Structures are given as C-alpha cells and as structure tokens.
UniProtKB/TrEMBL annotation:
It comes from Trichomonascus ciferrii. It comes from the Eukaryota. Residues 339-348 have a biased composition (Basic residues). GO terms for biological process: protein K48-linked deubiquitination. GO terms for molecular function: cysteine-type carboxypeptidase activity; cysteine-type deubiquitinase activity; K48-linked deubiquitinase activity. One of its GO terms (cellular component) is cytosol. Residues 317-336 have a biased composition (Low complexity). This is MINDY deubiquitinase domain-containing protein. Residues 12-275 form the MINDY deubiquitinase domain. Residues 309-348 are annotated as: Disordered. The lineage of its organism: Eukaryota, Fungi, Dikarya, Ascomycota, Saccharomycotina.
Length: 348
C-alpha cells in the first residue's frame, strides 16, 4: 500500500490555530492531493511538543516555527525535520550517537518521500512490514498504528494469518484469479482474505478498534494509517479521536477533533479542542439560526462521509490488475465534510 501526493506539486501548507489544554498551537492543513504523511507526522510532533512543554526548551521547535503563521513552506518543513534529528543525536552517548547518526543519514534521504509517497504494508495482526519508511517515524519517536486486524476468534483467522498482510493478500487473490481457482489451497486463502476485506471494507475492525483503545496512551498522539491515508490519532478519557486537519475546515474553529468510535463512521462526531460537542462550546448569545445551519452542515458532512467511505474502501479492496505504480486518486478518509470542502490523498 502506498500513499503519495498528487500530480500537482505541493509547495506550501495552510494552517489553523487550535487550543490544546491551556495554550495554543498551529497545525498544518491537508491540501487537496497534498502529502498526508508529512501533515500527520508534523502535526503529531507539534502536539507532542505542546503536551510535553518542549517547545521552549528545544532549539529546534516545530510548534514555535508554525505558531501564528498562515502558510508554511514544504521545503522549510523538511529542513526543520532534518534539524530535529540532528538535535536528537546530541542526546545520546558516543556509541549510541554513532548508530543513531547512521540511521539519521538513511532517514534524511527518505524525508522527500513524506511528500512524494511512502510504501506502507499493513499486517492483519496489527503490525506493519519493517520498511525504511517505518524507521523514519521511529526516529522521531512517533508511533504508527492501524486497526485493520483480524479477530483471533474469527473462524477464518488461521487462513488470514497465513496470508499475513495487505500486499500478500492482493498477490494471493491475483494469483488465484490467474489460475481460475485450480489451486485449492490458494483458492481457500484467497476466498478467506476477500471475505475479510469485504466484511471490513473501511479497513477498521471492531477488534482493531478495541486494540487501538488498549494500545494508545492517554493524551499521547500517534499516527493512524487507514485507507491509504495518514492522520493524527489521540486518546482522551478512553475515547479515540482523529485531528481534523482538512483545509476545508480552516475557518471552522469549533471543529478540532473527530471521534473514532465505530468502524463505519456512523456514530463518529466532531468535537471542539476541549472534546465537547460544538454546540456545547457555543457562546450563550450565539445566533440560533447560525447554530442550526452549522448543525445541518455537520449532519450532511457525516452522512456524505459514511456513504463515500464505503465507496472508497470498496475501490481500495479490489484486486490489483495493474502495476502497483498506477496512480489512483482517492479522498482522505479523515474528511468529514461536504464535497466542496474535501481534501484528497492520491494513492498508488
């Protein structure tokens, strides 16, 4: 599975200032066809800095750099990310620093992939293939998680476990099609994994959702990979949320988080920076008509998202009959918004 930017090169990001606890920070917004890996990584690092109070103590601070700026250059972000790693190397002893610097040199060469596209292969046990791209996130101490996990109690668990990952599933299905199901063992695995992907078309299972709740620490951001899209995920008071980072919501100050409480989005909702429903945080003198309009927009956005998530997931789960490098443009799964507000990730 690969996530990549679109054919139009993105050179800058718009931003949005949100409240976190008692303070504020400025996050990146997802451009149409923009590089979602870079957005998710930087926003997660910013939230980590603000939450840990590191912005003032660090010589290289992403949150300090983005603060108050309306637009951020991609080139500058990549340079800052490189400087962050160089500064981290000074925190180790001589031997550890030597190994860290070797890893840093490799990762610095990978930084442009945050813009051009990353190769990520999810495994149906909750892990990922250990690719160079995954090491990039590790060096920044950022966890990458997913919830497309087969329940060990599932009758077809053993078959899914033997197939192992998304890429291997696609290969198994393709080979089974080419052999017209003549290889009984392969056909059995292909049918099992097709059933699993169709049944869990949103690339999130009920078991996987609970896995994420158990895995993530309170008020500690991570990166969620789902439907070939990267987003910042956060657990607060036991509930999972994703950061609303779509450019269409730049001026929607009350929409900061979106709950992740169901596999199909049916019960997900928008929340303010204080994790309250937008109407709960409205000033008492807010115009009633404006509140009703906002609620209507929200209801429409949620229904559109439910419908289009299903369409997107169905397309993503089709066996690949073309080269893996063939680009297919899809929408960002974190965009809970009407069509005129959507931002997109292009996937390969």
């Amino acid at each position: 599975m690969s996530s990549s930017s679109g054919s139009t090169e993105v050179t800058e990001f718009e931003t949005k200032t949100i409240r976190i606890g008692e303070g504020e920070c400025t996050i990146l917004l997802q451009n149409e066809n923009g590089p979602c890996p870079l957005v998710a990584l930087v926003n997660t690092l910013i939230l980590n800095e603000v939450g840990a109070g590191e912005a003032q103590s660090s010589k290289v601070s992403l949150s300090s750099y983005t603060s108050g700026k309306d637009k951020i250059l991609v080139k500058t972000l990549l340079e800052l990310l490189g400087e962050v790693l160089v500064e981290k190397s000074t925190q180790y002893g001589q031997v550890e620093a030597g190994k860290f610097n070797e890893d840093v040199n490799e990762v610095l060469a990978l930084l442009p992939k945050l813009v051009t596209g990353m190769n990520i292969n999810v495994r149906f046990n909750g892990s990922f293939d250990d690719t160079a791209e995954m090491s990039l996130f590790r060096l920044y101490d950022v966890d990458v998680v997913h919830g497309w996990i087969c329940d060990p109690e599932d009758p077809e668990y053993d078959l899914i476990d033997q197939v192992g990952s998304y890429d291997e599933a696609q290969s198994t299905i393709l080979k089974d099609n080419e052999e017209s199901g003549q290889n009984e063992e392969m056909h059995t695995k292909a049918e099992a994994v097709k059933h699993f992907m169709q049944l869990n078309a949103t690339q999130l299972t009920t078991y996987g959702l609970q896995f994420l709740r158990d895995l993530l620490s309170e008020d500690s951001p991570a990166v969620l990979f789902r439907n070939d899209h990267f987003a910042t995920i956060y657990k607060h008071n036991g509930t999972l949320y994703t950061l609303v980072a779509d450019q269409g919501y730049k001026h929607e100050k009350s929409m900061v988080w979106q709950s992740l409480t169901s596999v199909n989005g049916a019960s997900d909702a928008f929340y303010t920076s204080s994790f309250k429903a937008p109407t709960e945080d409205q000033p008492t003198n807010t115009d009633t008509a404006a509140q009703q309009t906002g609620q209507h927009d929200y209801d429409l956005a949620r229904q559109l998202q439910i419908d289009e998530d299903a369409q997107l997931a169905a397309q993503l789960n089709q066996p690949r009959t073309q080269s893996r490098n063939t680009r297919q443009q899809q929408k960002s799964t974190s965009s809970k918004q009407p069509k005129d507000k959507k931002s997109k990730c292009t996937i390969m």
